[in-house]
Specification:
heterodimer, A: alpha/beta, eight-stranded mixed β-sheet, eight-stranded parallel β-sheet, 3 helices, 21 strands, about 15% helix, about 30% strand, B: alpha/beta, 7 strands, about 50% helix
Amino acid sequence: MVTFGYLVLLGLFAVMIVLCFIWGIWEYKKPKDAGPLFIDLDRTTDERLEEHTRRVFKAADFEPSAHVGDLGKDEMKLIPFASARKALRVELSEPIQLKAELSAPVRWNPKMDETVRVRGDVRILKGEVVPYNMIVEGDLTSQDDVTFQGGLHIKGRAIIGARNRLRKSVVCQKELVLLEDVIVHNCIDCEGLIFIKKGVRVGVGPEGGGIASASTIYLEKAEGPLKIHSKEGVRIVRSLKEVIPDDLKLNY
Amino acid sequence: MFKEQRRCHQDLAGAYTPSVSILIPMHKEEKVADDIMKRFVEMDYPKYGGRYEVIAIDDGSTDATPSIVDDYASKFSFIKAVHRTGNGGNGKPEALNVGLKVASNEIVLTFDADYLPPRDCIKRLVAPFADVEVGGVMGRVVPVNSPESLVTRIMDIERAGGYQVNQQARYNLNLIPQFGGTVGGFRRSVLKAVGEFDETKLAEDTDLTYKLYLHGWKVAYVNAAECYEEAVLSWDMRKKQLTRWAIGHDQCFFEYFFETLRSRVLTFWQKIDGILLLGVYITPFLILIGWLTGMVTYLAGAPWWCSFFPAILFIFAYNSMGNFAVFAETGGSLFLDQRRRGIWLLPLMLLNLLANVWVCSKAFFQAIFLRQRRLEQVKPPVWIKTPKRGVGTDNYNKALNNFRNNNAHRWDKTERSGYGMHFYNDKKNAEIRKNHRKGG
């Protein structure tokens, strides 16, 4: 009797083991999803960047909703800046000068002359030429007429001064402000808000480019082609002064 | 699983088109060479001004591969055919190093010869290089011949887990997504700075991944840059492939374990992930030891102090979570790919686990042996490669037909009975009769 009981238990155990695999064997023998996962080999990129050839026209052309209005005098009231201002209220630590930082052993890698990593906030003086790729683990402020010969990756916030020239791309993990007549040869990709003054040109290099943001892009009304994509929309404003949070306003 | 994935600069895909060189190392690839060259001819990328350059590296092939790539090179100015004779045939890392010598662009992408990239693949892969912090990039690999056998089906779902969940999660969490040596790329200047491909390694991709991270660069994982590959068909081929990967990975484990721990550029979690990733092919060996220990303890009886052994807690935790992690990962990826019926195959992955335990345990000792040989400056065996059968395009065409058939009637609409007017007329007549009665 005991032996019979053991046999029953063993049989039940075997059934349970088989039950685990039966579904797999079923799907293998009579496949409903044999694959492969379909990839259309003829597909091309759905370019998200939209070409805005003129930036001076009715805001409604950009945004079908009533967020911005038609650039009338009450337009600013409709833009939800309050939350953005709150999010941006971060104390800046004391800025340091790039030259001083480079003299310290802060190189990204001694073998790679082209890229430097800077820990802390950086302020680049007027007319300076930066011949490296730069990775800034802090905030970046560049004064007017600075030329960046390499690309920029900023972990904090960035204010790019007027008439700066950036030969490659800018990636910014927080808010980014581009002042008048900045030229970026390739791309801007930003996780935070982007504020763009008039006269800014992006993607003028032979490799092309454009602006992408995971947040909102604020454009000061101006003329000129710009390829942009923003997850939370593009808003046209009459003057950035009215929308840039105080701590991002340039004061050098 | 349920949140939006990290963006990986894909908003810029198509807008940013830097100069790019594509390396395709080939060794006796006559069955697949034509297919991949055709894919790169049809690639959607600006091909003027040297911006797009395809370099097919024939590494001492003795079949029709040289003539196939020569044919393409003569027809298209952006294709270069590099032939290695004499010293050729010494393995993929060496072939890549030769290709790099003739590559003229800063961004270099590599593809294996059996791969079938879609037309947007290059645009998607180069987009992350807009970020100066990115030193390497990796796309997603999808087996094209999954319906062929049980092995290919298991490989298919395993790959899904490895990319859709594993690599993506590593990228999302800012850990260590891996450059896989194909459907990926790197900056040439970075590679030069960290040293060329190590020709003594069987996993030059893992080696490069760690070189990049230890020098402070990052690898971006682009899930949208999908590419078909030809998966291995039989357990025998799988064993060879896995042996190569496991030995190569273990070589990197010996080389980078302490360096990863000591690194000043990696974060704490990157170090943890880096160590786990390095040990990914040692884990099956540890599982084997666990099984053997368990059996011995069961048969011989456990000593009395075993119950006080604190590690027992971790063993239970690992058995509850760790052993099932790969199944959970694969199931999650199939869910994300909307292939829920594929989840039924999960129990059969146990076969793969058993194969992994045996092959990787053997490979662990082979890696120790190879390390000894390497210390004595002896090169590993040449081109330990998986033979290709050239069934990629056929399988893709089948998949395309299936897709078209399944989606032939895209109007996902409610079926109409055509009785609308009939009901309307009935209703109308009823109203007329009602009014007539009232009036009457």
